[in-house]
Amino acid sequence: MSTSTGKIISVIGSGLIGRSWAMVFLSGGYRVKLYDNQPGQAARAIEEVGKQLEELQQAHMLRGELSAVDQLALLSSHDDLPQALEGAFFVQECVFEDLEAKRSVFQAVEGYVGESVILSSSTSCLLPSDIFSRVQNRTRCIISHPVNPPYYVRLVELVPHPETLPAVMDRTHALMTQVGQAPARLRKEVDGFALNRVQYAIIAECWRLVKEGVISVQDIDLVMTEGLGMRYAFIGPMETMHLNAPEGLEDYLRRYRDGMRRVLASFGPVPEFSGEEAKAIIQEMCELIPSDQQHLSARRERRDQFLMGLAKLKK
């Protein structure tokens, strides 16, 4: 029997990320209490989760040892915060990306849980020291930043508050590993965390290359999907360097450091991502994929199907 049997995790917020986290925790056999302050919203979210679990089961991509029906039976909806938090050992906040909203949530949550309960936020870029500023006991606070959609993309960035205890990081890391995610530890907080800092660096240079007429929107995406992305689905940039020279990383740096520094020095300023340059790039993008909901939904479904297949392959 799973050691998670009977253990409760509270998920605060029943939007896309909240539903995704609920599904991840359910796959590990945890009881999940899904809370939303909008009456009836959490109940409606459960219906959506049920549909997704059934679809995953039919596609043979359902995570965990339990059936879709058994996983859904572990999920309950709540409009009352104290009731949603009762018995939980871990709280995953998933409200919208607004600092004041998140601060208020944790200020309220702390009043209903014991000192040993871990308080975790799904924020994508807000700093732990800002989010948890109103929490009295900040030693049990942590960021668990998932990648959208977290059911298929397993990375979770664990970012500590300056006061977070090492044991809290260890317990969160163990939980995320147990439910099938791939937790990466940040040793200290930094604006944007690791994933978004790397992602924004790539976006900025791609934007500059398109803006300066070096390459088209379609072809810069091809550089990633048929080039770097092929590698990075399985090995990261550090290992890539290590494997791309006959004698490893030291040899790579000896061969390529001067060229790397020359190219990096040629990068332009951070783009504004607005004005005429933005209009031109948006137009080019929308000629490839129109921005109406029908086309965007179809492409998102395609993305998720590809990610599902890649996740299956990586397994």
From TrEMBL:
The 3-hydroxyacyl-CoA dehydrogenase C-terminal domain, residue ranges: 192-259
InterPro entries: 3-OHacyl-CoA_DH, 3-OHacyl-CoA_DH_CS, 3-OHacyl-CoA_DH_NAD-bd, 3HC_DH_C, 6-PGluconate_DH-like_C_sf, 6PGD_dom2, NAD(P)-bd_dom_sf
EC class: oxidoreductase
GO molecular function: L-gulonate 3-dehydrogenase activity; NAD+ binding
Entry keyword set: Cytoplasm, NAD, Oxidoreductase, Phosphoprotein
Site (Important for catalytic activity): 145
EC number(s) given by UniProt: 1.1.1.45
Residue stretches making up the 3-hydroxyacyl-CoA dehydrogenase NAD binding domain: 9-188
A Pfam family this chain is assigned to: 3HCDH
Annotated compartments: Cytoplasm
Protein's UniProt keywords contain Disulfide bond: no
Domain of life per record: Eukaryota
GO annotation terms (biological process): fatty acid metabolic process
One term under GO cellular component: cytoplasm
Subunit structure and binding partners: Homodimer.
Annotated family: Belongs to the 3-hydroxyacyl-CoA dehydrogenase family.
Protein name: L-gulonate 3-dehydrogenase
